[in-house]
Amino acid sequence: MESQQVPIAGRVRPIFHKDYHCPIVSCDGRKFSKFHQYMRHWRKFHTRTSSVLPCTACVDYSSKTRMELREHLCHHHHFTMFAAKRTADGTTRRTLMNPRYMSPGLHIPPIKEEVYITEEIVGVVEVGDNIPRDMDTDMVEQDGKLVLVVKNQN
Ligand SMILES: [Zn+2]
Ligand SMILES: [Zn+2]
């Protein structure tokens, strides 16, 4: 038997862009223009379970947030604000299997945009230009030529 496991931490999350195609085969290249639309799609189809707060006063309602449950208790069961808050706060989340789940395989959801966490790039100059000695620099290739990336030192 052969199995392949790839650690999530070792994978690079794709970066969302306009007209992002869902990479999961069963979605047949469906396109998304907004990040939050895609993330809603991801939660709806590519997460195995979801957690909900079931209403204790009726059987057919469950909400995603305590806020929503509170409003439901007030509007549909005529709870007072105080009773609704106490009931909602005391409700335990229940895990539901997603019936529409389509496995994303090895795909992971995209991130909204590229983030630079380690260093802040303050400027790019041609190699040979005068660089202040106290600046931290890195030689990188950009568009086929070598440039120095000047970084902020903290
Ligand atoms: Zn999809
Ligand atoms: Zn209810």
UniProtKB/TrEMBL annotation:
UniProt organism field: Mytilus edulis (Blue mussel)
Domain of life: Eukaryota
Stated name of the protein: Uncharacterized protein
